């Protein structure tokens, strides 16, 4: 190749290639010049080095490395907070419609599959250097990837907000009736759950959502987790206090002997298939989704490594598995077939200070958690619209419109099982199964040494697709059959 005009030999010798840990500089390549020609070996090596270096820089441009400061123990606590949510209230209902053995099988399977999906996500993060899910999607699949991740995480957060406000709609009337000294059957417009959820939304949640940043509300996740642990303790305690069947057993005793009624209502079932069984897997999947929080927690981990973060995930998921299983089994063994999709709603607070306390604690926790989730959804929406500069009118308008839409959904959705079902088969499935495996397969598509891992990831992706193809039609079929209003059996 002839020299470019004006290029001196000394300039050529002074040329440098950007440094890279895996690329060594061989000075011989820079001196092999013959009769005004650059040695072809020099050209090919130089081009390949530049290509490798550009690829390396491309990988690292996603996020600048910032050392983490959070200990392993605190990271476990943070990830457990991210996993724990309202899904715990629906697990006893899922167990009642699958039986103990089938539920345990599903719970173990989803736990292990969730841990594997975290592994895939961490590998993708390590390969790209991305510590934000949306950035990871954009880095691998471009703008469509960013949009899909945004849609999945936003739908998951909206589903969580709906379930939290549904708890307010269900539980606040009972708490107010108790404080007023009224019977559970008392009805008046001011103890109507629909009116109360709107009042709470625009009286408490809206002002908090209008803040420019949430500040101290970020710490409410710890309080929320504490409330759920308290709830689990109460569920276990009440199992040994509440007689099996309760009022339902008394209602059936006129037509059945007490012994036969007891046998019918109070015998645990191990494998069950009915029209509500389809909600079990989406409900469990919904309960285990924490993937949008994994990478931020990973980025804050002190002396972080993929192995260390995987340990954090393993401990967190095992702890939540134990909490979920104990809540489900003790809730089921208290109410058996009469359990509802909101387990807390089955406990009557009349003359029971303990139940009233746990009910109020959960209500306060979810009310304070809604603005945190709302802030995330709104910020992501502005980021996608490239409207990151603060504008008060837009800020207020978007906040009010989103809260109105969320309230309308809460008012007209008949039960929490519908929320768990829809979000479980859509966003939870995307975040646990489809996205991590798709990202991994795209990143490792040219890596021949990872053939076995790619096969497993492909099977994982196929499982997610199969889950959608089977669950979505069954959920829709149940809506059509039950008119969307059936709660029990």
Task: Report on the architecture of this protein.
The protein has helices at 9-14, 40-60, 72-83, 91-96, 100-128, 133-141, 143-180, 193-209, 220-239, 246-252, 258-265, 280-288, 291-300, 306-335, 353-384, 392-412, 416-443, 451-482, and strands at 33-34, 37-38. By secondary structure, the protein is mainly α. The radius of gyration is 28 Å and the shape is globular. The termini are far apart. Mean pLDDT is 80; it is low at 1-60 and 247-257.
How are the strands of the largest sheet arranged?
1-2
Residue ranges: pLDDT <50 for 5 or more in a row?
A: 1-60, 247-257
In terms of DSSP E residues, the strand content is under 5%
Overall pLDDT metric: 80
CATH topology heading: Hydantoin permease
The H/E string reads HEEHHHHHHHHHHHHHHHHH
Principal-axes geometry comes out as globular
Biggest pleated-sheet summary: 2 strands, antiparallel
Instruction: Please work out how many helical segments DSSP would assign.
Output: 18
User: Portion of residues in helices?
Assistant: 55-70%
CATH architecture: Orthogonal Bundle
Question: Mind telling me the C-alpha Rg?
Answer: 28 Å
């Amino acid at each position: 190749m002839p020299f470019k005009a004006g290029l001196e030999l000394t300039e050529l010798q002074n040329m440098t290639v950007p440094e890279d840990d895996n690329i060594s500089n061989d000075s011989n390549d820079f001196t092999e010049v013959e009769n005004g020609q650059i040695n072809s070996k020099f050209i090919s090596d130089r081009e390949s080095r530049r290509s490798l270096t550009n690829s390396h820089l491309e990988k690292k441009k996603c996020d600048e490395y910032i050392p983490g400061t959070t200990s392993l123990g605190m990271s476990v606590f943070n990830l457990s907070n991210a996993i724990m949510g309202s899904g715990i209230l629906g697990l006893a209902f899922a167990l009642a419609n699958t039986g103990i053995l089938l539920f345990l099988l599903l719970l173990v399977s989803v736990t292990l599959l969730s841990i594997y999906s975290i592994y895939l996500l961490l590998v993708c993060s390590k390969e790209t250097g991305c510590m934000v899910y949306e950035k990871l999607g954009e880095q691998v699949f471009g703008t469509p990837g960013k949009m899909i991740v945004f849609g999945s995480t936003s739908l998951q957060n909206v589903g969580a907000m709906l379930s939290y406000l549904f708890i307010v709609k269900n539980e606040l009337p009972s708490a107010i009736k108790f404080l007023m000294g009224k019977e559970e059957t008392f009805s008046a417009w001011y103890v109507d759950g629909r009116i109360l959820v709107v009042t709470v939304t625009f009286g408490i949640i809206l002002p908090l959502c209008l803040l420019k940043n949430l500040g101290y509300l970020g710490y409410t996740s710890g309080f929320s987790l504490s409330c759920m642990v308290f709830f689990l303790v109460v569920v276990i305690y009440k199992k040994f206090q509440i007689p099996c069947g309760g009022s339902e057993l008394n209602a059936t005793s006129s037509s059945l002997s007490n012994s036969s009624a007891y046998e019918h209502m109070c015998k645990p079932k191990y494998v069950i298939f009915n029209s509500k069984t389809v909600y079990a897997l989406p409900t469990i999947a919904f309960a285990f989704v924490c993937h949008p929080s994994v990478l931020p927690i990973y980025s804050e981990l002190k002396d972080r490594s993929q192995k260390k973060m995987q340990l954090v995930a393993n401990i967190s998921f095992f702890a939540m598995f134990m909490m979920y299983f104990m809540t489900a089994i003790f809730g089921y063994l208290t109410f058996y077939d009469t359990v509802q999709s909101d387990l807390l709603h089955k406990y009557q607070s009349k003359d029971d200070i303990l139940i009233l306390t746990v009910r109020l604690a959960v209500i306060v926790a979810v009310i304070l958690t809604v603005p945190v989730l709302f802030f995330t959804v709104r910020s992501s929406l502005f980021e996608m619209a490239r409207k990151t500069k603060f504008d008060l009118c837009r800020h207020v308008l978007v906040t009010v419109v989103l809260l109105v839409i969320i309230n309308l959904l809460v008012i007209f959705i008949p039960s929490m099982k519908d929320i768990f079902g829809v979000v479980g088969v859509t966003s939870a499935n995307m975040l646990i199964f489809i996205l991590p495996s798709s990202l991994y397969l795209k990143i490792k598509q040219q890596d021949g040494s990872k053939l076995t891992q790619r096969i497993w990831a492909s099977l994982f992706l196929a499982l997610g697709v199969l889950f959608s193809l089977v669950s979505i039609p069954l959920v829709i079929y149940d809506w059509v059959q039950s008119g969307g209003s059936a709660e029990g059996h």
